[in-house]
Amino acid sequence: MLSRPRHVLVTGGAGFLGSHLCTRLVHSGQRVTCVDNFSTGSPEHLSELPPEWLSVVEHDVTEPIPDPGPVDAVLHLASAASPVDYRRNGVETLRAGAAGTEHALRLALRWGARFLLASTSEVYGDPERHPQREDYRGNVDPVGPRSVYDEAKRYAEALTVAYGRERGADVALARIFNTYGPRMRADDGRMIPAFVTQALAGDPVTVAGSGEQTRSLCYVDDTVSGLLALLDSDLTGPVNIGNPHELTVRALAERVLRATGSGSPITHVPAAADDPRRRCPDISLARTALGWQPTVDLDEGLRRTTAWFAATRPERGTSASLR
Ligand code: NAD
Ligand code: UDP
What percent of the chain has a predicted confidence (pLDDT) above 90? Predict the structure, then answer.
């Protein structure tokens, strides 16, 4: 798929993860069309890519996607992803997962393109099995505060496999675990941009609840490689894409303080409602079936991320607090 020039459509391509994907695709000789409504992303992330290789279409995927002509692959990333963003725009998040996924699937089917859904570890909810393997069915509250995102993605997965089974679409499901790196919005409320901007500003670092909850962080370049390995395979999945290096949130805050050399204190703020207590991917499937595993360790990923936030800080204002 990626070994020769192709036309790839990326929904949500102006966001954090999408813009890194578009950049990697263009640099590997693919022609890319990015479809994005800029609700949480920015065309600025793509401004350095040559227009003959990248078209940016401002469009909301909850409306039918304008036909870009023949495409070989559709990567569907358009959706709010930060808990702060999706709790603020719950209905829109559900619509992006439902109507948005169907519009992207129809386009893929029309052109016989391979379709990849950017699903999430949130389909496992607050997991009762640890680490999470793809055959675990999850523990999601369908009416809880995170349900607008979790259920949108669960529906999107169901719709994607139905298009595969009933309509012959060539589909793949990636369950992406927490990914971080340059181009995250300083104020998107997620842990890494919050901790890094707070540490750089010398403000207190806001650990939610006890800080004993865990996450497993994957550097964005590794996540992009995993997604492209899945796209390039004939696997449907679902396949976990993440880094199994699990740490408590408090330990992650301490690693950010070390990476920034900051003397900021850690302060505890109220726990987020329904916050998953543990999260760690089992990536055996990705290792064996795709030959993929992460290569960037946490200290190196944090070094690159903090350098980017430090360099862009003047335009981005001061630190962002979560809640
Ligand atoms: P992001 O908010 O930076 O990017 C989302 C992009 O989608 C933005 O550019 C936004 O403007 C666009 N978008 C949102 N709704 C849209 C709509 N209706 N029409 C068109 N464009 C729309 O988030 P991200 O972290 O880059 O996440 C990208 C995708 O990856 C999401 O689908 C998310 O669920 C998935 N994902 C991300 C992570 C992570 O840790 N970053 C983890 C699991 C899954
Ligand atoms: N978190 C925190 N302080 C912040 C932002 C987040 O302690 O300023 C915690 C959050 O409560 C959760 C973890 O960090 O336990 C990861 O949150 P994030 O929003 O990055 O992603 P999630 O995995 O919850 O989708």
Answer: 94
